[in-house]
């Protein structure tokens, strides 16, 4: 069939239903304008002058239907998009509602417990580890700000490499709220009898937290090169000391030395849940191999190894 036949034949009569120029079977384009007065309407509503082949009729009919349904298709696509958007929105709403409700029901009640990160070990760290400590402190600060029972947070003996690094990389720290950042040693700020040094080497195991006390965490990332340093310090200073009751709940390797932020977060979690086991497992990452006692199974039952603790800056100890 020639291209002429096609353009002379079935015009789809209404505007916007057919493009003005219709490509013929061979892909040539012919104008349909000049054909208007020669048009005759066929039985299927498609106008023509000369009879068309079945194939051409079909093709034109399809084209016509396709054009006619353009708006419908557009409308359907729009509806689909809106439906998906609504579904996404309602999912978000229900998630937010959940946490929103929680927050509304449980108002923030600050704890009187003082939690100190003792930054007096600055000289013992290389810059890389100081940077890790900085990140761990940032994490403690952020977690405390969003806790239901935030503690009275202190950084003591603040200075040296840590302070320089904070000035360089996080100038905003000077505006941190709800934290005491002090150059003094904690012993200059807090009564001796209130102090309890948290240290994994202490023979004393914490059972409860006393919110009248000030608990100290050693601000140190040492990969255990200075084993027992905080325990010795506490003994020398004649202050209380205690380890977290990890051994009662977590299958441990020989070591149970956690990173600063983990100890800090466990204290926050305990203040909220009043349950050590829950506190441990809400904070300690599964990948660290923390396994509840009794659920340990041979090879996977290692826990909290130093190597794994170093995988991530804020987890590193
Ligand atoms: C990476 S550790 C430092 C280890 C260091 N060699 C020492 O002797 O403390 C950082 C701090 O977290 C606290 N900490 C870590 N594991 C603990 C545990 N199992 N119980 C109590 N405190 C712990 C200690 O205050 C410790 O100084």
Automatic annotation (TrEMBL):
<keyword id="KW-0949">S-adenosyl-L-methionine</keyword>
<keyword id="KW-0808">Transferase</keyword>
<comment type="function">
    <text>S-adenosyl-L-methionine-dependent guanine N(1)-methyltransferase that catalyzes the formation of N(1)-methylguanine at position 9 (m1G9) in tRNAs. Probably not able to catalyze formation of N(1)-methyladenine at position 9 (m1A9) in tRNAs.</text>
</comment>
<feature type="compositionally biased region" description="Basic and acidic residues">
    <location>
        <begin position="25"/>
        <end position="41"/>
    </location>
</feature>
<keyword id="KW-0489">Methyltransferase</keyword>
<feature type="active site" description="Proton acceptor">
    <location>
        <position position="222"/>
    </location>
</feature>
<dbReference type="InterPro" id="IPR007356">
    <property type="entry name" value="tRNA_m1G_MeTrfase_euk"/>
</dbReference>
<dbReference type="GO" id="GO:0002939">
    <property type="term" value="P:tRNA N1-guanine methylation"/>
</dbReference>
<feature type="domain" description="SAM-dependent MTase TRM10-type">
    <location>
        <begin position="101"/>
        <end position="291"/>
    </location>
</feature>
<dbReference type="InterPro" id="IPR038459">
    <property type="entry name" value="MT_TRM10-typ_sf"/>
</dbReference>
<feature type="region of interest" description="Disordered">
    <location>
        <begin position="1"/>
        <end position="105"/>
    </location>
</feature>
<dbReference type="InterPro" id="IPR016653">
    <property type="entry name" value="TRM10/TRM10A"/>
</dbReference>
<dbReference type="GO" id="GO:0005654">
    <property type="term" value="C:nucleoplasm"/>
</dbReference>
<dbReference type="GO" id="GO:0005730">
    <property type="term" value="C:nucleolus"/>
</dbReference>
<dbReference type="GO" id="GO:0015629">
    <property type="term" value="C:actin cytoskeleton"/>
</dbReference>
<dbReference type="GO" id="GO:0052905">
    <property type="term" value="F:tRNA (guanosine(9)-N1)-methyltransferase activity"/>
</dbReference>
<dbReference type="InterPro" id="IPR028564">
    <property type="entry name" value="MT_TRM10-typ"/>
</dbReference>
<dbReference type="GO" id="GO:0000049">
    <property type="term" value="F:tRNA binding"/>
</dbReference>
<feature type="compositionally biased region" description="Acidic residues">
    <location>
        <begin position="308"/>
        <end position="317"/>
    </location>
</feature>
<feature type="region of interest" description="Disordered">
    <location>
        <begin position="291"/>
        <end position="317"/>
    </location>
</feature>
<dbReference type="GO" id="GO:0005829">
    <property type="term" value="C:cytosol"/>
</dbReference>
<protein>
    <recommendedName>
        <fullName>tRNA methyltransferase 10 homolog A</fullName>
        <ecNumber>2.1.1.221</ecNumber>
    </recommendedName>
</protein>
<feature type="compositionally biased region" description="Basic residues">
    <location>
        <begin position="73"/>
        <end position="86"/>
    </location>
</feature>
């Amino acid at each position: 069939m020639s291209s002429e036949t096609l353009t002379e034949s079935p015009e789809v009569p209404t505007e916007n239903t057919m493009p003005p120029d219709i490509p013929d079977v061979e892909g040539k384009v012919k104008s349909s304008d000049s054909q208007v007065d020669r048009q005759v309407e066929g039985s299927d509503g498609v106008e023509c002058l000369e009879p068309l082949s079945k194939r051409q009729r079909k093709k034109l009919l399809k084209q016509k239907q396709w054009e006619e349904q353009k708006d419908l298709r557009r409308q359907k696509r729009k509806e689909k998009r809106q439906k998906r958007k609504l579904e996404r929105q309602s999912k978000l709403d229900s998630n937010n509602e959940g946490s929103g409700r929680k927050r509304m029901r449980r108002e923030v009640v600050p704890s009187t417990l003082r939690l100190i990160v003792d930054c007096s070990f600055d000289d013992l760290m290389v810059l890389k580890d100081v940077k890790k400590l900085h990140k761990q402190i940032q994490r403690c600060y952020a977690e405390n700000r969003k806790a239901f029972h935030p503690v009275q947070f202190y950084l003591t003996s603040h200075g040296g490499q840590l302070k320089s690094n904070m000035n360089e990389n996080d100038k905003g720290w000077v505006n941190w709220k709800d934290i005491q950042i002090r150059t003094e040693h904690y012993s200059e700020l807090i009564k001796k009898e209130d102090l309890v040094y948290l240290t994994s080497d202490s023979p004393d195991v914490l059972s409860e937290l006393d919110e009248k006390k000030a608990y100290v965490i050693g601000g140190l990332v040492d990969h255990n090169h200075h084993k027992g340093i905080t325990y010795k310090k506490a003994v020398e200073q004649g202050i209380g000391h205690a380890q977290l009751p990890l051994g009662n709940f977590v299958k441990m390797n020989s070591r149970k030395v956690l990173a600063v932020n983990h100890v800090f977060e466990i204290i926050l979690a305990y203040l909220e849940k009043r349950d050590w086991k829950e506190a441990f497992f809400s904070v300690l990452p599964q990948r660290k191999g923390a396994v509840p006692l009794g659920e340990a199974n041979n090879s996977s039952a290692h826990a909290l190894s130093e190597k794994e603790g170093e995988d991530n800056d804020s987890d590193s100890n």
